[in-house]
C-alpha cells in the first residue's frame, strides 16, 4: 500500500454506459435488507420452484440459502437460453495452441452436454456421486462439468498441472468411481501426457471403475480394457443421445467439491451448492463487470481453479455471455498470442491475474502494440494483490487508458467476488476497493475489534452470503473451526488474509497470514511442500517459505535437514526440487533447497517460518521469545 495514492476516475463514457450509477445507494440498500436484496437477484434467474426462506441461519456457521427452492444450475446456464434468441448465440469460442478453432452456440452446447450426461448416466453415475475431472482446457472439460451438474452428480476438477499423487489423493477423498480425462494437452508446442498421469493415479486409487478419455493431442496412451473408454467411441453409441432432462435438485444440493490448500498437508475439499452459488456468481459477474448482452468474455484462468469454475464456466453462461477458452501458453509462438486473440475475436472483457500480466509485460510494449485492442471495454485482475507497476501497464498499454480495472478479491471458499469495484468506482491501483453488495467487511484485531483506518489487521466478513462454501467435505468441525468462531458471539468469517482499510474505506489486501503461499496466483500450502520433501528417503525435516519474486509474486524457498550421514550436494538439491515437482506438480517446484542443521522452532515444535523469511530477506527477526534454543 503506497501512501502516495493515485486515483483513477471513470471517464464520461464509462459513466454513461454504466448500469449501476450509484454504488453507495445500492450498497446501503443491500445491507439494510440483505435478504431482500438477494431475493431480488435470485429473481433474475428461473427456478423450478421458489424458496420458502432466503436464508436459514438456525445452525451457524452452516448457513443455507434459498431453502425449499428447486433448481439446477444447468437450467439457468443452458436450458432457459434455449427459449430465447440466446439459443443461437455463441456460448463458447475455443482456440488451441496450434491455432485450431471450435465454437458452440448455446443450442450446440446443450446437445454436447446432454450427450456427455447420457454417457455418464449409462455408466451408472447418479445424484450424490462425485466425478473427478482431470483435463486440459478444452471444450469437453466444460461439457463434463455441466454434464455432471445436469444429472445431479457433483464434480471435482483437479488442475491439469497436478501430479499423480495429488490426483490420487483427491480421487480418494471424493471416493470417485468415474474419472474423465484426456490423452493430454499442449504447452509451448510440446504434448503433455495427462492419461499416463491418470493411469498412475488410478493404480493408487482403486475406487475408479470407469475412466473416460477424450482424444485431443493424439499421444499414444495406455488403455485398460474394461476400465478405459475413448470418449469419441462412447459418443457414437445410441446411449449418447443429445437429449437429456435436467435433474430437478434442491437449492442446497452439492454442485461441486474443489480442493484447495490450507494450513495442513491435507487439501480441503470445499463444497459449493446449486442455488446460492448460481445467484452469487451470476450477480457478481453481471454487476462488477456490468455484463452487456453482446459481451465476449475472456477469463484467462484455468477451469481447475475456483476462478475457472465461477467465471469461465458458470456465471458467464448464466448471464448468456460468449466465453473464450484457450488451451496453451500465453506467449506461444510469440508474446503477442493473447493480444492477437483479443483482436481476432473482438474480446470485450479480459479477466486475468497479476502474475500473467507481469509475465507478458516483461516482453515489452511492442507485442500488444501490434494489435487493435479497442474492443476491450473492461479489464479484471484476481489471485493476489496487483502491484501498481503491473496495474499501470495493464491499464495504459492493454486498456489504452480507457478500461477500468476490476480488481476482485475473493477465495475458493467465497465462491465469488467479495471485494471489487464497479466500472464507475474511482480506482486506486493495488486496492480491490470496496465490498460487493450485501457484504460488510472489516479489518480486526485478535479480539475482533475493528482496527483504526490505515492499520493492519485480519480481514473478516461479518455476514453470510449466498456463494459461501457450505463446509469442508466430510469435516464439518474443521470447517467451523478454521473459518468461524474466533470472536465470541460475533459470527465473523475469517478470511486468513491481512489487510488495511484506508480513510476512504478502500480495502488493501496485504497477503495470507497463515501458511499458504500464492505462487503465480496458485494457492499452495507450505505443509504440502514440506511433506513432499519429507517423503524423500534422504530428508529428515523440511521447511518451506515464500519470498518475493518479480514474476511469480512469491517463489518457494526450502530448508532441509538431511538424514544422518547424507551429504548435501548440488545434485541432491536438484533431485529434491524435482521430487517436489513430481509429487505435487511443477508449479510447486521450489526455487531452491538449502541444507541446514537446524530449523527455528517454537517450544511447542512449530517451525517459525517468519524467522526464516526475515533471515532470508536480511530483516529484523522480530519477537524471538517463543523460539526454542
Ligand atoms: C488472494 C482465488 C489480493 C488472497 C480467487 C486470498 C487476492 C487468496 C486477490 C485466495 C486480490 C485473491 N487481491 N489478494 N484481488 N484475489 N487473493 O482460493 O490471499 O485460490 O485469500 O482464490 O488469494 O486464493 P484462491
From TrEMBL:
InterPro entries: Ac_CoA_lig, ACAS_N, AMP-bd_C, AMP-bd_C_sf, AMP-binding_CS, AMP-dep_synth/lig_dom, ANL_N_sf. Pfam families: ACAS_N, AMP-binding, AMP-binding_C. Keywords: Acetylation, ATP-binding, Ligase, Nucleotide-binding. It is an enzyme of class 6 (ligase). Residues 23-77 form the Acetyl-coenzyme A synthetase N-terminal domain. Signal peptide: none annotated. It comes from the Bacteria. GO terms for molecular function: acetate-CoA ligase activity. The keyword Mitochondrion does not apply. Its EC number is 6.2.1.1. This is Acetate--CoA ligase. The keyword Acetylation applies. Residues 528-606 form the AMP-binding enzyme C-terminal domain. Belongs to the ATP-dependent AMP-binding enzyme family. NCBIfam families: Ac_CoA_lig_AcsA, PRK00174.1. The gene is acs. Residues 86-465 form the AMP-dependent synthetase/ligase domain.
Amino acid at each position: 500500500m503506497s501512501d502516495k495514492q493515485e486515483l483513477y476516475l471513470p471517464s464520461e463514457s464509462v459513466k454513461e454506459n454504466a448500469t449501476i450509477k450509484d454504488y453507495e445507494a445500492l450498497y446501503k440498500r443491500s445491507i439494510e435488507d440483505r435478504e431482500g436484496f438477494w431475493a431480488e437477484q435470485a429473481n433474475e434467474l428461473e427456478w423450478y420452484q421458489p424458496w420458502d426462506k432466503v436464508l436459514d441461519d438456525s445452525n451457524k456457521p452452516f448457513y443455507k440459502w434459498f431453502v425449499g427452492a428447486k433448481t439446477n444450475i444447468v437450467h439457468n446456464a443452458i436450458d432457459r437460453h434455449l427459449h430465447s434468441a440466446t439459443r443461437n448465440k455463441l456460448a463458447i469460442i475455443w482456440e488451441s495452441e496450434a491455432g485450431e478453432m471450435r465454437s458452440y452456440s448455446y443450442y450446440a452446447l446443450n446437445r454436447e452436454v446432454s450427450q456427455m450426461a447420457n454417457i455418464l448416466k449409462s455408466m451408472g453415475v447418479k445424484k450424490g456421486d462425485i466425478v473427478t475431472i482431470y483435463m486440459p482446457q478444452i471444450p469437453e472439460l466444460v461439457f463434463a462439468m455441466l454434464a455432471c451438474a445436469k444429472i445431479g452428480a457433483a464434480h471435482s476438477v483437479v488442475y491439469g498441472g497436478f501430479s499423480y499423487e495429488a490426483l490420487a489423493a483427491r480421487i480418494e477423498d471424493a471416493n470417485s468411481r468415474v474419472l474423465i480425462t484426456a490423452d493430454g494437452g499442449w504447452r509451448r508446442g510440446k504434448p503433455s501426457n495427462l492419461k499416463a498421469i491418470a493411469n498412475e493415479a488410478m493404480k493408487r486409487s482403486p475406487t475408479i471403475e470407469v475412466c473416460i478419455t477424450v482424444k485431443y493431442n493424439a499421444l499414444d496412451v495406455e488403455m485398460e480394457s474394461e476400465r478405459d473408454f475413448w470418449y469419441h467411441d462412447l459418443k457414437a453409441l445410441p446411449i449418447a443421445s443429445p437429449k437429456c432432462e435436467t435433474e430437478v435438485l434442491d437449492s442446497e444440493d452439492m454442485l461441486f467439491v474443489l480442493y484447495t490448500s490450507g494450513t495442513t498437508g491435507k487439501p480441503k475439499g470445499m463444497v459449493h451448492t446449486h442455488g446460492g452459488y448460481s445467484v452469487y456468481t451470476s450477480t457478481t459477474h453481471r454487476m462488477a463487470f456490468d455484463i452487456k448482452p453482446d459481451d465476449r468474455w475472456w477469463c484467462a484462468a484455468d477451469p481447475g481453479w475456483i476462478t475457472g469454475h465461477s467465471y469461465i464456466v458458470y456465471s458467464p453462461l448464466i448471464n448468456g455471455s460468449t466465453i473464450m477458452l484457450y488451451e496453451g501458453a500465453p506467449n506461444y509462438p510469440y508474446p503477442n498470442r493473447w493480444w492477437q486473440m483479443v483482436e481476432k475475436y473482438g474480446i470485450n472483457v479480459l479477466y486475468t491475474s497479476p502474475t500473467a500480466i507481469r509475465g507478458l509485460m516483461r516482453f515489452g510494449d511492442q507485442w500488444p502494440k501490434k494489435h487493435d485492442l479497442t474492443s476491450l471495454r473492461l479489464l479484471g485482475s484476481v489471485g493476489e494483490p496487483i502491484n501498481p507497476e503491473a496495474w499501470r501497464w495493464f491499464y495504459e498499454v492493454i486498456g489504452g487508458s480507457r478500461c477500468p480495472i476490476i480488481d476482485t478479491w475473493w477465495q475458493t471458499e467465497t465462491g465469488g467476488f467479495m471485494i471489487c469495484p464497479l466500472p464507475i468506482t474511482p480506482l486506486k491501483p493495488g486496492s480491490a476497493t470496496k465490498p460487493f453488495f450485501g457484504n460488510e467487511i472489516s479489518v480486526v484485531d485478535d479480539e475482533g475489534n475493528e482496527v483504526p483506518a490505515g492499520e493492519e489487521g485480519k480481514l473478516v466478513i461479518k455476514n453470510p452470503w449466498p456463494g459461501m462454501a457450505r463446509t469442508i467435505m466430510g469435516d464439518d468441525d474443521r470447517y467451523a473451526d478454521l473459518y468461524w468462531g474466533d470472536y465470541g458471539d460475533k459470527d465473523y468469517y475469517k478470511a486468513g488474509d491481512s489487510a488495511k482499510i484506508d480513510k476512504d474505506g478502500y480495502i488493501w489486501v496485504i497477503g495470507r497470514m497463515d501458511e499458504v503461499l500464492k505462487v503465480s496466483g496458485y494457492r499452495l500450502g507450505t505443509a504440502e511442500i514440506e511433506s513432499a520433501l519429507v517423503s524423500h528417503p534422504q530428508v529428515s525435516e523440511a521447511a518451506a517459505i515464500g519470498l518475493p519474486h518479480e514474476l511469480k509474486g512469491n517463489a518457494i524457498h526450502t530448508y532441509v535437514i538431511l538424514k544422518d550421514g547424507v551429504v548435501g550436494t548440488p545434485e541432491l538439491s536438484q533431485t529434491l526440487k524435482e521430487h517436489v515437482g513430481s509429487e505435487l506438480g511443477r508449479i510447486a517446484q521450489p526455487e531452491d533447497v538449502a541444507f541446514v542443521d537446524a530449523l527455528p522452532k517454537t517450544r511447542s515444535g512449530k517451525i517459525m517460518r517468519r524467522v526464516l523469511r526475515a533471515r532470508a530477506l536480511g530483516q529484523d527477526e522480530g519477537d524471538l521469545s517463543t523460539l526454542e534454543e
